[in-house]
Specification:
11 strands; 75% strand; 144 residues; mainly beta; Lipocalin; single chain
Length: 144
């Protein structure tokens, strides 16, 4: 297994009706683990709310599937596989919501220099359409 320190840049934009929200961008440090049989794991911390401790995020890429697990005060597990629907729960300090995603685009390219993941998906919360989401995760190898 090869572990590489990376700079993680995530840009996400939600499309509701005819309007698109402002893009949300997060830049943080992380770790990219490249394992045998084309499996990759990305780990990083993100802050959704400055009043709360950072959320630990783990992204596992394997067999045309991207799984994103977040722990802390906002717990979720998302599984992206093009053309498939995933249903789960989104736990917040204010309660739980049913969460469903349908992945319409999944592309990734990762190597020892970093790489990128591109996702497009429909998100439903509590059975209601929430938004079409686009997410791009870029990883850049850090020296060190």
């Amino acid at each position: 297994m090869l572990e590489i320190p990376v700079l993680v840049s995530i840009q996400s934009i939600a499309h509701r009706d005819e309007e698109a929200d402002e893009p949300v961008t997060l830049i943080t440090s992380g770790l990219l683990s490249l394992e045998q049989d084309d499996k990759a794991i990305i780990r990083y911390d993100e802050s959704l709310d400055e009043a709360l401790p950072p959320q630990h995020v783990t992204i596992t890429i394997e067999s045309e599937t991207v799984a994103m697990n977040r722990d802390g005060d906002y717990i979720s597990q998302l599984v992206f596989r093009k053309g498939q629907r995933y249903e789960g729960q989104y736990a917040t300090p204010f309660g739980e919501m049913a969460l469903a995603i349908f992945c319409t685009r999944l592309r990734y390219q990762l190597d020892e220099n970093g790489g990128e993941i591109q996702l497009s998906y429909q998100m439903d919360l509590n059975g209601q359409f929430a938004a079409m989401q686009e997410m791009e995760i870029r990883l850049m190898r850090q020296n060190g």
